[in-house]
Design brief:
Strand order of the largest sheet of chain B: 6-7-8-3-9-10
Structural class of chain B: alpha/beta
Distance between the termini of chain B: 63 Å
Number of strands of chain B: 12
CATH topology of chain A: ABC transporter involved in vitamin B12 uptake, BtuC
Mean pLDDT of chain B: 90
CATH superfamily of chain B: P-loop containing nucleotide triphosphate hydrolases
Strand order of the largest sheet of chain A: 1-2
CATH class of chain A: Mainly Alpha
Radius of gyration of chain A: 22 Å
Shape of chain A: globular
CATH topology of chain B: Rossmann fold
CATH superfamily of chain A: ABC transporter involved in vitamin B12 uptake, BtuC
Number of helices of chain B: 9
Shape of chain B: globular
Number of helices of chain A: 15
Order of helices and strands of chain A: HHHHHHEEHHHHHHHHH
Low-confidence stretches of chain A: 1-17
CATH architecture of chain A: Orthogonal Bundle
Largest sheet of chain A: 2 strands, antiparallel
Largest sheet of chain B: 6 strands, mixed
Radius of gyration of chain B: 19 Å
Distance between the termini of chain A: 21 Å
Strand content of chain B: 25-35%
Helix content of chain A: over 70%
Oligomer: heterodimer
Structural class of chain A: mainly alpha
CATH architecture of chain B: 3-Layer(aba) Sandwich
Helix content of chain B: 25-40%
Mean pLDDT of chain A: 86
Chain lengths: 363, 266
C-alpha cells in the first residue's frame, strides 16, 4: 500500500477533472466564443467598436434598450455581411471538431480527422461533380447530398484499406488517407480542367481551398441543422464512444455491437462532414487539433470532450477567419490554408509524441 | 449477484480454413472457478472468445443460464457476462476511475448520469484489486501490471454472474497474482479463466479443462487431471506432481530434459 501511495505521488500530472473544474472550463470556452464572435463582427475593412456590435446585435434580436446611433451601412455590415460568415465559421469549426473527436474514437487512432482520412476530399469531389455535371438542379441540398455520399465513400474506402486483421496502425491509416485523398483530388482537378465553363471552375477552385466568404443567412440552415443533429446524436452515444477506447473486443464484452455502431457513426460523421464541406469547402486540421487540445483540459471522457471541442472549434475557426481576411486585406487568404499552416506542425508533433509513447512509455 | 451456469456444447471454431477449436464441450456450474490450461496455440483464447461473443462458433452452442449467448442482445449478455481480454486498450487520456466506470455501461441507459450505486460498484471494484490509490491517475501512464488490475476492476464493476478471463495474471508480480486469483475465487460469480501457470491453476480452480490442438484432452479436479503422464503427453516435458503438505493441492515441478548438471555429460 505504501509503495502504491508513493508511486502516485511521483506522477507528474494528475489531471483535475471533477465536476466543478469541468463546468469552469466549459464557461471559459463559452466566454471565449463570445469574445471571438464579437471580434469577428467588429473587425474588417470597416472597424465597428464592440459596444456598437452588441447594440446592433441585441437590437436585431428585439431588445430596445439602446437607441440606434449607428448608420444603416454599419448595421448591414455587421448583420448581413459579417453575421452569417461568423456563424458559418462557428458552425463549421464546431462540427469539424466534434466529427474529429468521434473519428479518433471510431478508428481508435489519435491521428484521425475528416480531412486526413479523405472524407473532405470525397465530399469535395461529390459536390464538384454535381456542379459540373448537374447544373440543372444546382442547389444546396443536392450539393450537400453529393458531398455526403462522397465523404462516406472515401471514409469506408480508407477504413477498409487501413484495416488488416482487425487492427489499424497509424501508418497504414495515414497512408491510406493520403492515397485516397490524392486520387480523389486528382479526379477533382480533372473535372475542373475539362469543364467548359471556365468561370465556374475558377470559383470552385477557390472553394476547394476552404473559405467562409460569400455566405448568406439562407445557406446557413443546412449546416446548422447538420451540426445540431451531429452533436445531439454523438452526445447520446458518448458512453459507447468511451467503450471503444477500451478496445474492440472489450467494448463488445461491455455490450456494444461494434460493427453496427461504427457503421452508423460513419454515416453520421460523413453526413456532417459532407454538409459542412458543401458550405465552407474542405478545411483541414480543425478536427485533428481541437480534440487533443480539449482532452488536455477536460480529460478523455467523451461526455466532456464533445461539448468542449464544439465550443473550442467554433472559436478557433472564427479566429482563423479573422486572420485570413485581415492580414493581407483587401485580399483574403482561404481559411483552409491558414488552418493547414497551424495544423501541419501540430500533426507532426502529435505523430512524434505518439511514437515516443509507444517506444518509451510504460509497458 | 449469484453465479450463472455456463454450458459450451460441441463448439468448433475456425479462422479462414484453419481450425482453432474442435468439438469442445465444457460446463461450469454456478459459482465454480474453472481453469483452462494448455500449451500455446491449444485454443484457450479462441474458446474464451467464443464464450464472450467475439468469435462466432462454426458449430455448437454457448449457453449462459440456458440462454444462447449468441442470440441474446449484446447489452443483455453484458449484464451477465464480463470479460478481461488480451486486447491492448488505448486509454486516450482516461483516468483509471473512468476506465473502471466503463464497466457500468451495460447497466445504464444512455444519457443517465452516474448513480450512487455506480459509484459504489466502482469503488468496491478498485478496492478489490488494490487499485484505490491509482484511481485518479491517467490509465496510459500505468505499468503493465497496474493496467491489468484496473481492467480486472472494470470487469468486476460490471457486476457479472459469469466472469471470463484470458491470462489475468500476465504482467503481475507474485503478490498481485495471488491477490487477484483470491478475489476471483471469492466472487459468488462463476469464473472461467485461462491460466499459464499450472500451480496457480491447481491452487485456485475447482476444476480444470486441459486443451491441446483445439480439443479437450482431460477435465476434472486438479489432483485428477494433473498427472505426470498427462503433462508428458500435452506439454511434452517430464514433470513430478506432489501434493503440497500445507495446501493439500497438487504441485507440479518440471524436470528439464537435459538434466540438472550439463557438465556431467563430460
Amino acid at each position: 500500500m505504501t509503495a502504491l501511495a508513493k508511486s502516485s505521488e511521483n506522477t507528474a500530472v494528475v489531471k483535475p477533472r471533477n465536476r466543478a473544474t469541468f463546468a469552469v472550463t466549459l464557461v471559459a470556452l463559452a466566454a471565449l466564443l463570445v469574445v471571438c464572435s464579437t471580434a469577428g463582427l467588429a473587425l474588417g475593412s470597416v472597424h465597428v467598436p464592440p459596444a456598437e456590435v452588441w447594440g446592433i446585435v441585441t437590437h436585431a434580436l428585439g431588445a430596445d434598450w439602446t437607441e440606434p446611433t449607428w448608420t444603416r451601412a454599419r448595421e448591414t455590415i455587421v448583420l448581413d455581411v459579417r453575421g452569417p460568415r461568423v456563424l458559418l465559421g462557428a458552425v463549421t469549426g464546431a462540427g469539424l471538431a466534434v466529427v474529429g473527436t468521434a473519428l479518433q474514437a471510431l478508428v481508435r487512432n489519435p491521428l484521425a480527422e475528416p480531412y486526413l482520412l479523405g472524407a473532405s476530399s470525397g465530399a469535395s469531389l461529390g459536390a464538384v461533380a454535381v456542379i459540373v455535371f448537374g447544373s440543372s438542379f444546382f442547389g444546396t441540398v443536392s450539393l450537400s447530398a453529393a458531398a455526403f455520399a462522397g465523404a462516406l465513400g472515401a471514409l469506408v474506402l480508407v477504413y477498409a484499406a487501413a484495416r488488416t486483421g482487425g487492427r489499424i496502425t497509424s501508418m497504414r491509416l495515414v497512408l491510406a488517407g493520403v492515397a485516397v485523398a490524392s486520387v480523389l483530388n486528382a479526379l477533382l482537378n480533372l473535372l475542373l480542367l475539362t469543364t467548359d465553363n471556365g468561370n465556374e471552375a475558377r470559383t470552385v477552385l477557390a472553394w476547394t481551398m476552404g473559405g467562409l466568404g460569400g455566405v448568406s443567412w439562407g445557406s446557413l440552415r443546412l449546416p446548422g441543422l447538420a451540426l445540431l443533429l451531429g452533436i445531439a446524436v454523438l452526445m447520446v452515444q458518448a458512453p459507447n464512444l468511451n467503450l471503444l477506447l477500451a478496445g474492440e473486443e472489450a467494448a463488445a464484452t461491455m455490450g456494444l455491437d461494434v460493427a453496427r455502431f461504427r457503421a452508423r457513426m460513419f454515416v453520421l460523421v460523413s453526413l456532417v462532414t459532407g454538409v459542412l464541406v458543401a458550405a465552407a469547402g474542405p478545411i483541414g486540421f480543425v478536427g485533428l487539433m481541437l480534440p487533443h487540445i480539449v482532452r488536455l483540459l477536460v480529460g478523455g471522457d467523451h461526455r466532456r470532450v464533445l461539448p468542449a471541442a464544439a465550443l473550442g472549434g467554433a472559436s478557433f475557426l472564427i479566429l482563423s477567419d479573422i486572420v485570413a481576411r485581415t492580414v493581407t486585406a483587401p485580399e483574403e487568404i482561404p481559411v483552409g490554408v491558414l488552418t493547414a499552416l497551424c495544423g501541419g506542425p501540430f500533426f507532426l508533433w502529435l505523430m512524434r509524441r505518439d511514437a515516443r509513447k509507444k517506444a518509451g512509455g510504460p509497458a | 449477484m449469484t453465479g450463472a451456469e455456463l454450458r459450451v456444447e460441441g463448439v468448433t471454431l475456425t479462422a479462414g480454413t484453419r481450425r482453432l477449436v474442435h468439438d469442445v464441450t465444457l460446463t461450469a456450474h454456478p459459482g465454480e472457478t474453472i481453469g483452462l490450461v494448455g500449451p500455446n496455440g491449444s485454443g484457450k483464447s479462441s474458446l474464451l472468445r467464443a464464450v464472450y461473443r467475439v468469435l462466432r462458433p462454426e458449430a455448437g452452442t454457448v449457453r449462459v443460464d440456458g440462454a444462447d449467448a449468441w442470440s441474446l442482445p449484446p447489452r443483455r449478455l453484458a449484464r451477465t457476462l464480463a470479460a478481461v481480454v488480451q486486447d491492448a486498450p488505448s486509454g486516450l487520456d482516461l483516468s483509471v476511475r473512468e476506465v473502471v466506470a466503463m464497466g457500468r455501461t451495460p447497466h445504464k441507459r444512455l444519457l443517465s448520469g452516474d448513480t450512487f450505486e455506480d459509484a459504489a460498484a466502482i469503488e468496491a471494484a478498485l478496492a478489490s484489486v488494490d487499485a484505490v490509490a491509482l484511481a485518479d491517475r491517467p490509465f496510459d501512464r500505468l505499468s503493465g501490471g497496474e493496467r491489468r488490475r484496473v481492467l480486472i476492476a472494470r470487469a468486476l464493476a460490471q457486476d457479472p454472474s459469469l466472469l471470463v478471463l484470458d491470462e489475468p495474471t500476465n504482467h503481475l508480480d507474485i503478490r498481485h497474482q495471488l491477490e487477484v486469483l483470491t478475489v476471483l475465487r471469492r466472487l459468488p460469480a462463476t469464473v472461467l479463466v485461462a491460466l499459464h501457470d499450472l500451480n496457480l491453476a491447481a491452487h485456485y480452480c475447482d476444476r480444470l479443462y486441459v486443451l491441446r490442438d483445439g480439443g479437450v484432452v482431460a477435465s476434472g479436479p486438479p489432483h485428477e487431471v494433473l498427472t505426470p503422464r498427462l503433462l508428458a503427453e500435452v506439454y511434452e516435458v517430464a514433470a513430478e506432481v506432489a501434493v503440497h503438505p500445507r495446501t493439500g493441492r497438487p504441485q507440479v515441478t518440471f524436470l528439464p530434459a537435459d538434466g540438472p548438471s550439463p557438465g556431467a555429460e563430460g
